[in-house]
Design a protein that fits this description.
By secondary structure, the protein is of the alpha/beta class. It has one domain: P-loop containing nucleotide triphosphate hydrolases (Rossmann fold, 3-Layer(aba) Sandwich), CATH 3.40.50.
């Protein structure tokens, strides 16, 4: 069965889109069939795969407003095994439209449940907010990856995110356990990074898994989106690409270990 994973943190600049694009590309290169759903009106994941967000005939907004089925909006990327439901600025209007709709929190789930098992993993890239779009992603997913940057105020807002996850689980009866905490922008040479890493360990209980792989601060990761491709294609030998390949293998092993339990 496929697994739907929401990559979520309402704090901007923590590496959500970078992780969605590069982790999905790394898994696809390891022969996993992957779908990325861009749920951010900024559409950075869409442009990160070289897709022009201004020339889309249909997007995730088409699904949200009921104009199209998910399978009709899915596009191939230039990477084998990797597909995307793209986004554009139209999605910003969905916030207003969904508020007055009954069952608005489950629109995405209802749309993608029929295609869930067509993929090994479906990753949802969420916007930097805890609004209705993120709520839809949490209801639709099976688990959550939370990227946290190793900088000052790294844990700011995390308590709000955890409360939202609990709300989804308790009030909407939709379990979305934390798959793992991912440390990003990590520079092990600095005292600050090491201190933040320890703060993260102290903040989360022993129940939450913290990925052993950390994502380094890397100029190639920052450059790749401007070239319309994942970093593992732009420069597969840089430290950023190597980290995402390592993360992909860790995620696969985590699944295999869970299946054995």
């Amino acid at each position: 069965m496929g697994e739907i994973i929401s990559i979520t943190n309402q704090k901007g600049g923590c590496g959500k889109t970078t992780t969605a694009v590069n982790l999905s590309a790394a898994l696809a290169s390891l022969n996993k069939k992957i779908l990325v759903i861009d749920m951010d009106p900024q559409a950075n994941a869409t442009t990160g795969f070289g897709i022009n967000k201004f020339k889309l005939d249909s997007s995730v907004y088409s699904i949200i407003c009921g104009e199209a089925k998910a399978e009709e909006v899915i596009r191939k990327t230039s990477i084998p095994n990797l597909y995307i439901i793209p986004s554009n600025l139209d999605l910003s209007g969905a916030e207003v439209e969904l508020i007055s709709q009954i069952g608005s929190h489950a629109v995405l789930k209802e749309a993608i449940d029929p295609i869930k098992n067509d993929y090994d993993y479906i990753f949802i890239d969420t916007p930097p907010s805890l609004g209705i779009l993120t709520l839809n992603a949490l209801v639709a997913c099976d688990s959550v990856i939370i990227p946290i940057q190793t900088e000052y105020y790294a844990l700011e807002g995390i308590a709000d995110l955890l409360r939202t996850i609990k709300l989804v689980e308790n009030r909407l009866n939709s379990p979305c356990p934390i798959k793992g905490i991912l440390l990003t922008l990590y520079d092990r040479r600095t005292r600050l990074a090491r201190e933040v890493y320890q703060e993260v360990k102290n903040f989360f209980s022993s129940k939450e898994y913290i990925f052993k792989t950390t994502i380094p601060r890397n100029i190639r990761l920052a450059e790749a989106p401007s070239h319309g491709m994942p970093c593992i294609i732009y420069d597969k030998d840089c430290n950023g690409s190597k980290a995402y390949f390592k993360l992909a293998k860790e995620l696969i092993k985590l699944e295999e270990d869970n299946e054995k339990k």
